Amino acid sequence: MVYRLRVALLPWALLSCFSDSEVGDAGSSSGSSGEPVTSEPAAVCGNALLEPGEACDDGPDNAPTAACKPDCSPAACGDGLVGPGEACDDANAVDDDACSNLCASTCGDGHINPGEACDDANDDDDDDCTSLCRQPTCGDGILQSKFNEECDDGPNNGYNAACTGYCKDARCGDGFVSPTEECDAGGNKETVDCDFDCRAPVCGDGKVNEAALENCEGDGPFVHALCLTCHFACDQGFGDCSHDDLDDAGHDLGCETDTRVTAAHCGQCDKPCPDGQKCVDSACVP
């Protein structure tokens, strides 16, 4: 009977060898305060919530070239992705190549970067590459004497401007009316509307424009004629029938044809006598 009692008490004796805290730890998930301990949920990149382990999270705006990348890490120079504020990103630490260690590319660095047509690493505008890393061209606003430009006013170039559309100074005779001209017939020739000096013909301007039907300017001396409103007033019996007698400027000398006795111009210019007749006192006679 005594033996059976001792065996029945043995489990209680064994339990007494452990402390209360040890028993509690072995039998529950409570902490030292007695409250349940719960684990943190895993972070979800792309939910627009900044969670543990994430440096950024812009939700649907995460992108390889955005400020926050798809793995919720921030864009950084050297990651091989051209992010905001970067001109380039070659993912290397070489500073003297086409993309610097600051992820910048500049005109004049000697490398043809995106958006550049050339880059000769100098600021000379009068060579094959301008200081803006552009191929020189008429109209770029840069005077390039190497390419025979006389002017370049950029967008103000024009065929009726001081600098023409082909980067030459406007000049009388080029066929384009510049701001200092009234007309320009091209080739410095006279027309009914334009004198040789690119001025509109005006009687009394000292220039005889025969294309504008002017015969004379001033008081002469003229042959058998007076100059009235830039036209010859011929003496009686004379006409301005021939244009062969010219002054040093190539202008008609006056009314040199005697219509009283000239068979080809009998009585008036361009009135010939019939064959076999002659002109006497401005009349054709056998």
Overall pLDDT confidence: 84
Helix content: under 10%
Summing up helix and strand content along with how strands pair, one would put the structural category as: little secondary structure
| Largest pleated sheet | 2 strands, antiparallel
**Rg calculated over all Cα atoms:** 52 Å
Distance between the amino and carboxyl termini: 192 Å
In percent, how much strand structure appears in the residues? 5-15%
Total helical segments: 2
> How many individual β-strands?
6
What is the H-and-E element order?
HHEEEEEE
Runs in which pLDDT lies below 50 for 5 or more consecutive residues are 1-29
**Largest sheet: spatial strand order:** 1-2
Query: Which term fits the overall shape?
Result: rod-shaped
Nutshell version of this structure?
8% of the residues lie in helices and 6% in strands.
Describe this structure as you would to a colleague.
By secondary structure, the protein is low in regular secondary structure. Helix content is 8%, strand content 6%. Strands 1-2 form a two-stranded antiparallel ribbon. A hairpin with a 2-residue loop joins strand 5 (278-280) and strand 6. The relative contact order is 0.04.
What would the keywords be for this entry?
286 residues, rod-shaped, disordered N terminus, two-stranded antiparallel ribbon
Write the layout of secondary structure elements.
Layout: H1 2-15, H2 20-27, E1 225-228, E2 231-234, E3 238-239, E4 257-258, E5 278-280, E6 283-285
Antiparallel strand pairs: 1-2, 3-4, 5-6
